[in-house]
Amino acid sequence: MFGNGEGAGGSWWIILIYIGLFAVLYFLLIRPNSKKKKQEQEMRNNIAIGDDITTIGGIQGRIIAIKEDEDAFVIETGPDRTKMKFKKWAISSVDTVKDTPADKTKEDKLKALQEKREAGCDHQSSQKGQIRGGPEGPDGAGPADLLAPAVVPADGTVPLAVPPVGNRRQFL
Description:
The chain has 3 domains: 1-45; 48-94, SH3 type barrels (Roll); 101-159, no CATH class. It is 40% helix and 16% strand. It has 3 helices and 5 strands. Strand 1 and strand 2 form a beta hairpin. The longest helix is centred in the first third of the chain and has 41 residues, at 5-45.
């Protein structure tokens, strides 16, 4: 049947095409779906009392009890505080915003920036209410300070934003 070499070589190409097609389907359809299921399961396992949730039926409420032995939870919803019991698989989303390490680092960066600004004001001038910066800058920084000089108020605080200069009506 496959007496010549051409027929046997052609069947290998077909097998390779099927393997390639299966690989593409795996990476485009199966793998993302399994990652999504894993994230949903993690979300359902990490619920806590006080979280605001939405069920797959669209009911919104706050978790007031978690029953691990039944794999269920109780929510309180509405102004009359109606209590309803659901299975954990019925959670569609957790609407409570929790602090993440990324948010904490942003706060730390903001505090560090404020401390840096305060330190820059202390060594520049002992008199309050003066404009700091200049051609050389407070730390020899250069022309960046010429673009937006910061005014140090008399109470010693450092403003986070420079107020607009000129006629304010032009911006309305």
